[in-house]
Design a protein that fits this description.
Length: about 800
């Protein structure tokens, strides 16, 4: 929104006396001048912004007042006051003139008389563009995102598929990992919780987005340097945004699948105090807290402290699931400038769930609770640290400056017994793997957002530069073969293995990426939205093999672009089309020519339709897409890699987020046909990618039972279905499965007013105890987690 609006809204933070604001004749004259307006029906904050640009008026209003509301269409000749009233029709919001071309929006209950006979307005907060994509959203429906454009843009105006998972949804489904938080999102699949307990490894539209270079972001910037750095704690997130399809235009080298952007909880000036005590299956005990607010009444500084401690066992013998997470944050802001400092520390203490061959799982029927490791040896301990800042400033001419920088570090100790071969007598031939890993990441992003008007076209332009530097030092050692374990009579407490520390199979890698990008979002007559953008990247890396003492150098550059169109109908329909690109450097060289591998490239065509009906808390999205990734590395029978591979993914996705009275709803369906279309191994050609089912269906609904006389009680239930998944290297299929989840929550204030702020909840995952497995290859299978139940006591004040 224009800076003059922000200044005006700050002025109205104090009480305003309407009669003394300006002379009545001047106000009446300004309000009655006729102008031409072309403002389509849309989310109310965007409509008010359009009115301000067309009329030159200053309008102050509370951002929370406008959340979730939609404007009426205003087309034709109107006096500005009449146009503003027409725009607000049906919302219950009224206009109070405070000057010749200034107004404040209020609900009738906000207006009260004072002793002098004037009309005193309740406090009006700083005017904004409505929903803030970094702050809390009540319920499951978010309508604005910054991930797709690096600007605060309504989702309905975005010509690419994007989903938002709110912190309320994370809480209600009791997600313990990002993979669980996004489990009701279309086009997304993950490995079993046995793996995601440690790391975030997600497939989007058939492509892996496992780390910073593939698609895992934090607050709009790349995060982990490799997939084994440790997953992100969902309790520390305000929301998770999933942008599907190639997105190198804004983030550089990436997988064609898209990005997952985890948004940290940030300081709030409203008091926030929450403490949770939890207990559940497998001796789970957890304590968490989320505290925040202004440092002092009326202060322009705020803080937030989010923390979690968990000790737990798991469904697999000898494997624990312990975690510590603490995230302090601080914000300073004034009328035009804000500075937020974010930091976090996380410790994951567990054991690695070693992958199992599909033949052993399907033929031998190994029990789900069997641990094939050595309890005296196996461990996975990851300590991660992150600290950075986000600085924003809006100049008097409306230009917005943004700069964010972060340092990330991970230190991992990872020892485990690897599955080898299973002999006829039940003896499992194993080998010990001893790994110590250290990685760092430094990332920075700087951009300018510029708004200008050229005739009927409203431009919002973004020009920026970002940088990402990463290191990954991995020491890997092995033992000889171990014959001490038998699956018929397992003994997990054997002597420590003898490790050969003379040969280091690890490597030391580092890399840099620099990128410049430009984007222009053009609104033509407030109905046609055109999005054009381009980016140029320079990426280099060097990898030292400790075993061979050889260094592999890569030096690549690439251009990536995106173009999209959206048309906004007055009835809330918004069809769109887009084309987007991605690139991803590949380390290594051709075994015949010796030429360095070139980056793989991704190209997507997408068409979709969204529906956000006026006056309804509903967002429906549907999309069809076609993605081709070329220059993919494929491996022959001798272990040599060739860059002749190609993967083709096409599909259809549908998603619904809705709130009807006491009902909150999330639903999705995805058809994903991701296939290997070229490979050095002819056996793979035509095969579907592993772990990617053709069909997935998900539905979660939560309902308040007040109408049934059960005040304070809410119940939720969800079902997820995954069709069979392919194993390309065997032409076998992993059976599909369905999972049922449930939740009950009771506000104890309904029982006794003295218990205000106390809430108890009960959650069940895989309620029916479905037995299932997930496989990334014929030798990479894991059991799913059986039924788990947890109870939580929450106190808020």
């Amino acid at each position: 929104m224009l800076p003059i609006v922000a200044r005006y809204a700050l002025a109205t933070t104090a009480a305003v006396f309407v009669p003394g604001a300006a002379s009545v004749p001047a106000m009446a004259q300004a309000a009655q001048q006729t102008m031409t307006f072309t403002i389509p029906s849309q989310p109310l904050p965007g409509a008010i912004d359009a009115f301000i640009r067309a009329s030159g008026w200053q309008v102050g209003y509370s951002s929370s007042m406008a959340n979730g509301l939609r404007s009426r269409a205003v087309n034709g000749a109107y006096a500005p006051l009449a146009a503003l009233n027409a725009l607000l029709e049906g919302t219950g919001i009224k206009v109070n003139l405070t000057g010749p071309q200034t107004a404040t929006l209020v609900y009738p209950t906000q207006i009260r008389g004072d002793a002098s006979g004037g009309i005193l307005l309740d406090t009006i907060n700083v005017a904004g563009a409505g929903e803030d994509p970094t702050q809390h959203v009540d319920g499951y429906l978010a309508t604005v995102s910054a991930t797709a454009t690096k600007m605060d843009v309504p989702i309905i105006e975005t010509p690419q598929s994007i989903s938002v998972v709110t912190s309320d949804f994370i809480r209600d489904t009791k997600a313990a990992a990002i993979s669980e938080a996004i489990q009701y999102t279309p086009g997304v699949v993950t490995q079993s919780p046995a793996f995601s307990r440690m790391v975030d490894d997600v497939m989007i539209r058939g492509f892996d987005v496992a780390n910073g270079n593939s698609g895992m972001l934090r607050d709009g910037m790349k995060y982990q340097s490799n997939v084994y750095d440790g997953g992100q704690e969902p309790y520390g997130l305000e929301r998770v945004e999933i942008l599907r399809g190639p997105s190198s235009i804004l983030y550089g080298q990436l997988s064609p699948g898209g990005v997952i952007n985890a948004i940290s909880k940030r300081p709030t000036f409203e008091p926030l105090h929450e403490v949770n005590v939890e207990g559940g299956s497998y001796d789970m005990r957890q304590l968490s807290a989320d505290l925040g607010g202004a440092l002092a009444p009326g202060s322009n500084m705020a803080y937030r402290l989010t923390a979690l401690v968990r000790e737990a066992d798991t469904s697999v013998n000898y494997i624990n699931d312990d975690r510590i997470y603490i995230a302090p944050a601080f914000t300073w802001k004034d009328e035009s400038t804000s500075l937020t400092v974010l930091a976090n520390y996380q410790r994951i203490d567990t054991k690695f769930a070693a992958p199992l061959p599909y033949s052993a799982v399907s033929n031998f029927g190994l029990p789900q609770n069997m641990f094939i490791g050595n309890a005296n040896y196996d461990k996975y301990i990851a300590n991660t640290y992150s600290a950075g800042y986000i600085f924003d400033h809006e100049f008097d001419n409306g230009i917005k400056f943004h700069n964010a920088t972060r340092y990330y570090q991970s230190d991992v100790t990872w020892d485990y017994m690897q599955w080898g071969s299973l002999l006829a007598n039940g003896t499992l031939v194993r080998r010990a793997s001893d790994r110590n890993e250290f990685s760092t990441g430094v990332t920075s992003d700087t951009n300018l957002e510029i708004k200008l008007q050229t005739g009927p076209i409203a431009h919002t332009m973004l020009v920026g530069f970002d940088y990402y530097y990463r290191t990954y030092d991995s020491d890997r050692y092995r033992s000889g073969l171990d014959y001490s374990f038998n699956v018929l009579s397992p003994n997990n407490l054997t002597a420590l293995p003898t490790i050969n520390y003379k040969i280091n199979y690890g490597s030391d890698a580092s890399g840099s990426q620099y990128g410049i990008y430009f984007q222009d979002q053009m609104k033509i007559y407030e109905k046609l939205v055109v999005l054009l953008g381009g980016r140029y990247d320079w990426a280099n890396s060097d990898t030292l093999s400790y075993q061979t003492s050889t260094t592999t150098l890569q030096d690549d550059s690439a251009f990536s672009g995106r173009a999209g169109l959206v048309y906004l109908f007055d009835n809330g329909l918004a069809p769109y089309v887009s084309v987007s690109q991605s690139f991803q450097p590949q380390v290594g060289a051709d075994p015949v020519s010796g030429a360095a591998f070139v980056p793989s490239r991704g190209l997507q065509y997408e068409g979709g339709l969204r529906y956000e009906p006026p006056g309804a808390n509903l967002l429906l999205s549907g999309a069809v897409y076609d993605i081709t990734q070329t220059n993919v590395l494929t491996t022959d029978a001798n272990g040599n890699q060739y860059q002749i591979g190609e993967v083709h993914s096409r599909g259809f996705e549908f998603e619904a987020h809705a709130k009807y009275g006491r009902l909150d709803l999330v639903a999705s369906y995805a058809y994903t046909d991701a296939r290997i279309t070229d490979s050095v191994d002819p056996y793979e050609i035509g095969q579907r990618e592993a772990l990617v089912p053709l069909n997935t269906i998900a539905l979660w609904a939560e309902y308040g039972l007040e109408d049934l006389g059960l005040r304070g009680l809410r119940m939720g239930a969800g079902i997820r279905y995954f069709s069979d998944m392919n194993l390309p290297d065997t032409h076998q299929s992993v059976p599909g499965y369905y999972l049922v989840d449930a939740m009950l929550r009771y506000d104890l204030e309904a029982l006794n007013p003295k218990l205000k702020g106390a809430i108890v909840s009960l959650n069940a995952k895989n309620l029916l105890g479905e037995e299932y497995i997930t496989c990334v290859s014929a030798d990479g299978c894991r059991y799913g987690t059986p039924r788990t139940v947890s109870g939580t006591l929450t106190y808020r004040w």
